[in-house]
Automatic annotation (TrEMBL):
Its main location: membrane. The chain crosses the membrane at residues 15-35, 42-63, 101-122, 134-152, 189-215, 236-257, 269-296, 308-328. The keyword Cell membrane applies. This is Branched-chain amino acid ABC transporter permease. Belongs to the binding-protein-dependent transport system permease family. LivHM subfamily. Keywords: Amino-acid transport, Cell membrane, Membrane, Transmembrane, Transmembrane helix, Transport. Coiled coil: none annotated. It is found in: Cell membrane. It holds the Pfam family BPD_transp_2. InterPro entries: ABC_transp_permease, BCAA_transport_permease. CDD domains: TM_PBP1_LivH_like (cd06582). It is a multi-pass membrane protein. It comes from Maritalea porphyrae.
Length: 342
């Protein structure tokens, strides 16, 4: 039972990543009707916002200490990040918490990238067949990952989590169990909490703000909203930017769990599209529910006891569940009638 509980927790943080990416995909499809195969690349770009900020924060100034020498008799070099030299303890704090601070960089960067993508490319494919949308956005994703590969290299770049949350939480003791029975990394718990907050914020924005209500009305009947004098196109552009921000923040916070590299987006893209299809194309609640469901099932399937019975089940469980659900419910868990059926 302890192992099952730990794998359940693993599934929550993994499902949080799936749900965040799938949420952005569904926002774009629900508002613009575009199947965006470049959305995984936005997750990758967010991760590299964290890499970039850390590189900037760890730029070092070099000084020599004449009172100390190396084994070769030369003055000892002392390397200090500029931010520590300029801001003291706060500079050291910024370096240590570079991943959370990267969100402040990722939000405006991803907003600009999202708006440029939508205005410069995506808007020309609103009324084109979905096959053409997939081809052009998949090509864009390849271009973006090759750009990242050129500037950052092909190898993964580890990003340390803040030292204050580098340990593990004794969840078992907190639940009244024996201590040190169920311990779980703090950062994974933080990522799960972060994903819940972001998902809740997006739903609250769509549900309780006038802007969100107009967007939901436009998703249901775009022509009618346009006829009453509302410029729905600008709002949909903003939603594309919001989807990019959500994917970027998800990528930033995931970097301590999985060192980012240039094909990170492609790794998550296929899984996130499976999540969207299982949840139901165009259904935001379905995307979130399917994300957490498939994340948990994938983690449970990775248990040694399960793999001993069915070898390799952890690699195919998501696709197997997707096949079963779509056989029973062709529109997905919460899919709507008429979406991608024409």
């Amino acid at each position: 039972m302890d192992a099952i509980f730990l794998q359940f927790l693993n599934g929550l943080d993994k499902g949080g990543a799936y749900a965040l990416i799938a949420l952005g995909l569904t926002l774009v499809f629900g508002t613009l009707g575009v199947v965006n195969f470049a959305h995984g690349a936005l997750f990758m770009l967010g991760a590299f916002c964290a890499v970039t900020l850390r590189k900037l924060l760890t730029l070092e100034m070099v000084a020599t200490d004449p009172e100390k020498v190396t084994a070769w008799g030369t003055p000892l070099e002392i390397r200090t990040p500029y931010v520590e030299a300029w801001f003291g303890d706060f500079g050291a704090f910024m370096v240590d918490f570079s991943v959370p601070f990267s969100i402040l960089l990722a939000i405006p960067v991803m907003l600009v990238i999202g708006v440029v993508m939508e205005r410069g490319l995506i808007k020309h494919f609103y009324r084109r067949p979905h096959a053409e949308q997939i081809l052009v956005t998949f090509g864009l994703a390849i271009v973006l990952q090759e750009i990242i590969k050129h500037y950052f290299g092909a190898n993964p770049i580890p990003q340390p989590m803040p030292s204050a949350v580098g340990g593990a939480a004794d969840i078992g003791a907190a639940l009244g169990m024996d201590p040190n029975v169920i311990v779980y990394p703090w950062w994974r718990l933080i990522y799960f909490a972060f994903s819940v907050v972001v998902i809740g914020a997006v739903f609250a924005f769509l549900q309780f703000t006038t802007f969100g209500m107009v967007v939901r009305a436009g998703m249901a009947d775009r022509e009618t909203v346009g006829l009453i004098g509302i410029d729905i196109d600008k709002r949909f552009t903003a939603m594309f930017g919001l989807a990019a921000i959500v994917a970027g923040m998800a990528g930033v916070m995931y970097t301590p769990l999985l060192p980012p590299d240039y094909h990170l987006g492609m790794d998550f893209l296929v899984l996130s599209f499976v999540v969207v299809v299982v949840g139901g194309m165009g259904s935001l609640p379905g995307a979130v529910a399917a994300g957490f469901l498939l994340g948990i099932l994938q983690s449970l399937a990775s248990m040694t006891e399960i793999k001993a019975i069915i070898p390799g089940i952890d690699q195919i469980i998501i696709y197997l569940v997707a096949v079963i659900i779509l056989l029973v419910r062709p529109r997905g868990l919460l899919g709507r009638r008429g979406v991608m059926e024409s």
